[in-house]
Specification:
By secondary structure, the chain is an alpha+beta fold. The chain has three helices and four strands, in the order H-H-H-E-E-E-E. Helix 1 runs antiparallel to helix 3.
Length: about 130
Amino acid sequence: MLVPAITLVLIALAAVAIDLVLVHSGQRAAYRAASGAVDDAAGMIDHRLVQLTGDVRIDRDAARAVIEARLRGPAADLPGRVTGLEIDFPEFPGGTVVTVHLELAVPHVFLGSVPGIDDVAASVDVRGRLDA
């Protein structure tokens, strides 16, 4: 009598564990992708400004295009769909910081069959800095 009940409980716990592992791996993949995009964006130096004034600044349009291509383009290898992407370029003394906030909807494998449970959002914040 207890064996079927214990089996059902173990299967349910295994399903929850697998879904949580997938969410965690989605968060790690989102962090790796956002980190690479920020590193590439920090290298987008405004060469015209360097030639005119000697100041080293990030070309914001080129950096934004690189981030969009890396995270939303066909080359983005993410285990879900990007539901939110915020790109910011705050100025600090001595450099420019590229900040990316990425939200990724990671689909459930087992818990998706339970009514009322939606995809889980794996959210990461990544910063890259260009020191001048």
